[in-house]
């Protein structure tokens, strides 16, 4: 009985962890391209999910149309944020940039609550089959779909950065801005593009979570959960982000299991990733795959 | 940050360089300012005094954060947790029959020790890694408050006693105001003096160039951790004053949004400016009041009905906090203190601005 439960929890952890991985990936994308630590990553999920929900329920658009319009909107949203808020802050100290994204995070969280209320809203049902059983385990089909979407996004990222021209330009910019510029890469464009892609990818994750749990301001907590994941994986490693997301996803589920079985402290699900993060920061601050010396004099 | 002293620097002694008040008039102005504030309870109503008290305890905590962020160049996103720790610690001490005036300072010391513990990563981490570590501290401390009823009273919160000294009870705004004012003066003078000592200048050196600082014989790990301790001490005093004003402390108040408000105070007031912490605290405390009065002004109008302004006032407040942070960072990155110096320089140098 307990083994099955544990197995189920690990599976849940992997599914949620894949989503963390996707969000962490888009976080790392922004960090790599423009050296901005984005505390407003969770708000990308939030805004994307609310916009999609609004299109689907208020305007009664079909799912594919609502989805595409949301993606288009998030592209513009990401670019506009980068151009209006982050571009004037290029060259400012780390704390200014961090605080600007923190300000964005508060602003959009409150704006979304104002526009859509504080209660969780469900998406219209999308799947005809409620649950599927895999290897004798019950899995809700939405969870399965979310796993598929996550994997698709990860493969997309891999293709983008290995083969596409823009992806290569972004890697070049991340490697050395001056060299990239002298080779004809437009650095401002790369910055804007990284924010656009990050916003779009995060919003997809937001929609997936919204379909599973309903859309609410709890979505923005994914933006905080992303920190343990990226710190574990290494701040500037996309592979690390994915792996870190998976590990954190499993860790919080296992922590909850351990807690429920033996400790009875409560709330371990939320807090365990942060304890893990402090440990990692003390032992190996550059993470599993991060560049060793990230801070420059 | 450019110096605003007119045409050259004529200071020729260390004494002149480390003085708190550069001219006699600025010293007199400060004394007059404090005296005017002493008269405030005679003129102002209880509500306005309450706002001044809030500015006072926020300013103390913001000053601590400014020592950490503005003077030492380290980022903390968990200041509200330390503020809350101070509030609970003071309430706990009072419950163990420590008189309130002592409990406030005891709470400050306890919070300072906790700050040293959570500042330990600062010995190893810099910049955004440290920011993320303090973010973790915020959640861990919040979680600790929630699950330690012996300390925080758990979900129901903790009731504490009003400030009492020599058989006088300071439990009304009119009287408690003086207590807060006294603490504000003590803490601000202490901070201004700290920045003149070797330790204070070591902190600034760590901020400006840690490599050079280390070469000059400054122990980086020691001062990085120490500045966390000092910041937490100030936060603890501020939190304790908060506790004995409201007489009730509860876990929910010290969330991450409050931490961000403290950071906003420091940034809006001006990084590395002692007076700036006060200006920033005043700005952040008064901002919701301005929003409130703006909404009251629009109450009943078509705009109000269309946008549901009245019922969503708390969201509007949060939005203005976020917007204020962003706008200040883009348009006035040196904060209100810098603007104030510019205004002073303008009057001093009129009509020749150089």
Layout: helices, strands, pairs:
The complex is a heterodimer of chains A (297) and B (354).
Chain A: H1 2-34, H2 41-57, H3 63-86, H4 94-116, E1 131-134, E2 137-140, H5 141-163, H6 165-175, H7 177-182, H8 187-213, H9 222-233, H10 238-263, H11 268-283
Antiparallel strand pairs in A: 1-2
Helix pairs in contact in A: 1-5, 1-8, 1-9, 1-10, 2-3, 2-4, 2-8, 2-9, 3-8, 5-6, 5-8, 6-8, 9-10, 9-11, 10-11
Chain B: H1 14-17, H2 24-38, H3 40-43, H4 46-71, H5 79-95, H6 100-119, H7 127-147, H8 149-152, E1 158-159, E2 163-165, E3 168-170, H9 173-194, H10 198-208, H11 210-215, H12 220-246, E4 248-249, H13 256-269, H14 274-298, H15 302-307, H16 313-331, H17 335-349
Antiparallel strand pairs in B: 1-4, 2-3
Looking at how many chains there are and whether they match, the oligomeric state comes to: heterodimer
CATH class of chain B: Mainly Alpha
Helix-strand string of chain B: HHHHHHHHEEEHHHHEHHHHH
Strands of the widest sheet of chain A, in order across it, are 1-2
Give the beta-strand count of chain A: 2
Largest sheet of chain A: 2 strands, antiparallel
The separation of the N and C termini of chain A measures 55 Å
Based on CA atoms alone, the radius of gyration of chain B comes out at 21 Å
Q: How would you state the average pLDDT of chain A, rounded?
A: 83
